[in-house]
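Message: Just now I want nothing more than another pair of eyes on a protein record. I am handing you a single protein, as its sequence and its fold in token form. As I understand it, each token names a local backbone shape. Take your time, and here it is.
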Amino acid sequence: MVGIITPFPCVRIFCLYTGISVAFIYVWHCTLFGSMLAYAGQAEAKNRHGFIPCVTATPVSQAKDRNWLYRAFMTGGVNPADPHNPADNREHAGMAFFRDRFGPVLNKNWVKCVVLTLFAGYIAVACWGVTNIKEGLEKRNTANYDSYSVQFYDMDDKYVRACVRNKHRMLAAYLLNFSRSGSCAT
């Protein structure tokens, strides 16, 4: 949203539309994700398949005699007759790692201090960067340093720009005088 305060209308409009789009997508994702999460919770409670919700998934403990393709794609959930069966309630390795290894490390006070210090440093560098933003485009930075066009851009800035600026000033003065007097005479 910093770009909205720039004097260039095209940048201002782009930043305004981008900001509105990001805000809309944020609200859209919050509402869509919440509704999809509720729907997935209801399907999981009914032992429905994750990709084909009209099909009930067979618990792993009841699918021992089925072929490997069926066991790979159509099993899951919990057996309602035996909800504490270890075959249906296997622990996920990622969940166990974050619970047993990563969680205790994050709960240490010195780790919390390091994380907060890193975040504060990141915010400080970001604020410093925002204060040092320079407006404009240097055309020489759009080409490789060894390109022949860099020399052209340098000579264009040195010799042509000064002449063009003077002509623009003369044209602006002429048009201003024309609009005041209503005639071409100066």
